[in-house]
């Protein structure tokens, strides 16, 4: 029997906008993310458009991803962009230093831009600060965005791209406290001043520059880095922190306690870390220019995702619940959190897509991105789930078993609600109260639920975990609904 619960949706109190960029992505030259997952080459038997695999393009295009960060990650700080332009047979072969694999440079700037265009996403390029030069960073911007008849722009034109790419998002290095040079925050801040001076000048005032932020193992980085940037914080627009989850947990053979560690402890840790970073950012914002926060890399990193396996890992129903509850937290914080890039889109870490030769499968994580699309750019509506028991982690942290998040469309005519039931065994028969005067009609209900946290999609069984429509009767309203254990439900309502 389902336990009773209730949810209140305060549709009369819409607040901040839930930036669509929270649903952005990150790809790196790592394992089979780029080579195999995106790029197969023009001569491949796998159907492709000029070397870019068509099934990947189709699957990602459907999700309308807002932005895509490239080429890394650690790889970015050892990448020299000129290696990746011009005729492919003449591009130098390099060693991918961090991920110990050969780098053919077949996928470079023009291929990345073409991929972004095919999937209708905005490019976000991270420059090499760790082992590159300021001039390399500046000239990369000129190659992408330049319009004057300079030699660099002529190179782009000669490579078949007369029009500028107009790249708006630029990263000033990656993890400078680690693979990006093991720098001290004070030195990194001085480097950032130098790089950002030339990058800003080259990219123009409307470009968005992201400085390197911390991750939980270097918690005082942001403070010291921003203190040293001082008033030059105005050269950049965001600081980008990284938070990975799931340390030591197995991809499929996890225990119920591991599930609670991930969904209760790690989600809390990530949320608290973002809140702390928001405070730091606030304390360093000048009155002259807005400065904000990006979660530049996030997601689950299971213990099987090692260099030897190309950081490949399976994604289960557990990942779907983690993704959904993470988005609920991001929505709450969206007044101060602009972008979030899950790591990484294809074949690496918490991937949305897995490929094997010519086969492709969408993971449960993909399906949450799909289900949550209507939340993007909606206005946040506070929700509270009451009379709901909590789930407790072995460490003693607690989280409400039922979580709701709601957004109102810009014209106020559509209300979109997602509900996550984290309970491993309990369903909730839930009374729902929408607190405003609008007569809302229930239009569409979809659900991701398999009854098995460990279920996942394989190349033989690609549809083990896929969203299902829930039958809605004509004229139905949203007064009561039962949310099964381990489920993600989305509800679309329109004003009558
Ligand atoms: O996403 C894998 C790696 O994790 C990235 O290259 C790096 O930025 C982070 O440590």
Overall pLDDT metric: 96
Return the structural class. alpha/beta
End-to-end span in angstroms? 34 Å
The share of residues in helices is 10-25%
User: Could you tell me the number of beta strands?
Assistant: 26
Can you put this structure into words, describing what you see?
There is one protein chain. This protein folds into 2 domains: 3-12 and 379-495, Immunoglobulin-like (Sandwich), CATH 2.60.40.1180; 20-375, TIM Barrel (Alpha-Beta Barrel). Helix content is 25%, strand content 26%. It contains 9 helices and 26 strands. The chain has helices at 54-63, 109-119, 134-145, 151-158, 185-203, 221-229, 256-283, 317-333, 364-371, and strands spanning 3-9, 24-26, 48-49, 52-53, 67-70, 94-96, 101-103, 122-127, 169-172, 208-212, 238-245, 292-300, 337-343, 353-356, 359-362, 379-381, 383-386, 390-392, 398-400, 402-408, 414-421, 428-434, 440-448, 468-470, 480-483, 487-495. Helix 5 crosses helix 6 (221-229). It is globular. The mean pLDDT is 96. The chain binds alpha-L-arabinofuranose.
What's the quick description here?
With 496 residues, the protein is α/β, with parallel strands linked by helices. It has 9 helices and 26 strands.
């Amino acid at each position: 029997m389902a336990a009773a619960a209730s949810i209140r949706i305060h549709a009369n109190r819409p607040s901040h906008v839930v930036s669509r960029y929270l649903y952005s992505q990150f790809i790196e030259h790592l394992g089979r993310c780029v080579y195999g997952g995106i790029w197969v080459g023009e001569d491949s038997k796998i159907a492709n458009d000029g070397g870019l695999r068509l099934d990947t393009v189709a699957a990602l295009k459907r999700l309308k991803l807002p932005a895509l960060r490239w080429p890394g990650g650690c790889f970015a700080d050892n990448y020299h962009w000129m290696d990746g332009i011009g005729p492919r047979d003449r591009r130098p072969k390099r060693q991918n230093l961090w991920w110990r694999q050969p780098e053919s440079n077949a996928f470079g700037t023009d291929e990345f831009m073409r991929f972004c265009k095919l999937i209708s996403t905005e490019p976000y390029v991270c420059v090499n600060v760790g082992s590159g030069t300021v001039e390399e960073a500046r000239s990369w911007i000129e190659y992408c965005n330049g319009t004057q008849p300079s030699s660099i722009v002529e190179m782009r034109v000669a490579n078949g791209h007369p029009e500028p790419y107009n790249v708006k998002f630029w990263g000033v290095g990656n993890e400078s406290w680690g693979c990006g040079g093991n720098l001290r925050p004070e030195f990194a801040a001085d480097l950032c001043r130098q790089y950002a001076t030339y990058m800003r000048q080259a990219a123009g005032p409307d470009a968005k520059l992201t400085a390197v932020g911390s991750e939980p193992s270097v918690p005082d980085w942001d403070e010291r880095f921003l203190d040293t940037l001082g008033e030059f914080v105005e050269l950049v627009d965001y600081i980008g922190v990284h938070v990975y989850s799931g340390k030591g947990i197995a991809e499929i053979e996890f225990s119920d306690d591991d599930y609670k560690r991930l969904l209760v402890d790690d989600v809390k840790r990530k949320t608290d870390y973002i809140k702390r970073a928001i405070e730091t950012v606030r304390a360093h914002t000048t009155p002259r220019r807005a400065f904000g926060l990006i979660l530049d890399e996030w997601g689950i990193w299971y213990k099987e995702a090692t260099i030897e396996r190309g950081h490949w890992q399976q994604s289960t129903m557990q990942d779907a619940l983690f993704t959904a509850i993470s988005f609920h937290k991001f929505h709450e914080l969206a007044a101060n959190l602009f972008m979030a890039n899950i790591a990484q889109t294809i074949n690496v870490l918490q991937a949305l897509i897995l490929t094997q030769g010519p086969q492709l499968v969408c993971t449960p994580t993909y399906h949450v991105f799909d289900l949550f699309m209507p939340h993007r750019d909606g206005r946040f509506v506070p929700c509270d789930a009451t009379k709901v028991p909590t789930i407790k982690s072995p460490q003693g942290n607690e989280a409400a078993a039922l979580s709701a998040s709601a957004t109102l469309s810009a014209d106020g005519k559509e209300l979109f609600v997602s509900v996550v039931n984290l309970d491993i065994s309990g369903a909730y028969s839930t009374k729902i109260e929408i607190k405003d005067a609008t007569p809302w009609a229930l239009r569409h209900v979809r659900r991701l639920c398999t009854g098995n946290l460990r279920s996942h999609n394989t190349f033989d069984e690609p549809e083990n975990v896929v969203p299902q429509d829930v039958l809605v009767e004509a004229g139905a309203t949203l007064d009561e609904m039962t949310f099964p254990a381990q489920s993600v439900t989305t509800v679309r309502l329109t004003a009558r």
